[in-house]
Amino acid sequence: MTVMNPQDQIPARGDYVLDHIGFFVPGMEKGAAALQRLGFFLTPYTAQQHSLGPGQPVVPAGTGNRLAMFERGYLELLSPFAGGSVADQLRDAMKRYVGLHLIALGTADAEADHARIAAAGFATVPVVRLQRDVETPEGKRIARFSVTRVPPGTMEEGRIQFCQHHTPDVPWQARWMTHANGARRLTDIVVCVADAREAAGRYARLFGRAPHRLSWDGWSLDLERGRVIVLSPVGLAAILPGIEVPTLPFMAAFAVEVADLDTVRSVLAAHGITKLLDTATAVAATPLPNLGATAVFLAGDGRAPWLEGDAPA
Predict the structure, then answer these.
(1) Are 16 and 276 in contact (CB under 8 A)?
(2) Cα(255)–Cα(294) distance, integer angstroms
(3) Are 283 and 266 within 8 A, CB to CB?
(4) How far is CA 176 from the centre of its chain?
(5) ∠ CA 96-252-312 to the nearest 5 degrees?
(6) DSSP at 305
(7) Are 17 and 11 in contact (CB under 8 A)?
(8) Global pTM?
(9) Which of the four, 84, 140, 184, 223, has the lowest number of CB atoms within 10 Å?
């Protein structure tokens, strides 16, 4: 389907959705080529701007992005091109590995999230106001966001944030939501950690959601739309054998719902990409060097492999 009302991307107050995940790449060209080989259509490149507090000027962030927009959620490629604190954070993260370093939960109120996570005992930074110019059929418009983050290093897995869209009709344009692989919805991100129980408890405090125990030595943080999966290396190896873990923690995989898996198989074959997993409900692509994470494609009526055989705590 095509999103007829972009406001549907914004959850009800107090709810959270898996809004987007972000790849940190040293160069946009190679990262974009990797996503395109997987069958994703990307938006044009844009430079980002931000304001670090109320009344402060909007200045270049030193980073740029391209997106793969879905009917629900999206993927983001981020690359630094200049100096600045945000660009330096990307460079520092990429010293560990190139790939997924960002999880953004969609929210209706970034200011309320800021107050809630402070009350939960987390250090906070001021709400960040982000914006970027976006071409639309009617001309250039500005996409605006408010983002609540904890300080770098608070969540050792990467940049975990809450994102409030003020102009959802600007990024969610129908012309950008048709993908060769049939992708329709971002459903999951998988984080591999040394101590899954500890990490799941930390995410539970940050999200205000109780974790759900999985059979595969891990936990699921279920949102109103989408999931954050926390697995040990043992659990990850059991579900997606063959993934090389460069270091811990590691954002290892993501999942998208597609129209049908045969289309995915054709796209992967056309680009010479081998599969880590191929079942009736899921196909996983071998990680590409310039992307770092495993892409898992799910049939519209299928369950993610990490949910098979799950059990309550």
Answers:
(1) no
(2) 9
(3) no
(4) 17
(5) 130
(6) G
(7) yes
(8) 0.94
(9) 140
Predicted confidence pLDDT, tens digits, the chain (313 residues): 444 578 888 999 999 999 999 999 999 999 999 999 999 999 999 887 766 656 666 677 788 899 999 999 999 999 998 877 788 999 999 999 999 999 999 999 999 999 999 999 999 999 988 888 889 999 999 999 999 999 999 999 999 999 999 999 999 999 999 999 999 999 999 999 999 999 999 999 999 999 999 988 999 999 999 999 999 999 999 999 989 999 999 999 999 999 999 999 999 999 999 999 999 999 999 999 899 999 999 998 888 999 987 543 3
| Residue ending a domain, choose from 176, 193, 209 | 176
Q: What is the length of the chain?
A: 313
Can you give the C-alpha Rg of the chain in angstroms? 18
**Overall number of domains in the chain:** 2
Give the pair of three-digit tokens for residue 49: 């701007």
Main-chain phi, psi angles of 143, to 5 degrees: -85, 130
The edge-to-edge listing of strands for the beta sheet with 227-231 is 212-214, 218-222, 227-231, 183-192, 250-258, 294-299, 282-285, 275-278
Same domain, 198 and 168: no
> CB burial class (10 A; 0-12, 13-18, 19+) of residue 77?
buried
Read off the CATH number of the domain in which 285 is found: 3.10.180.10
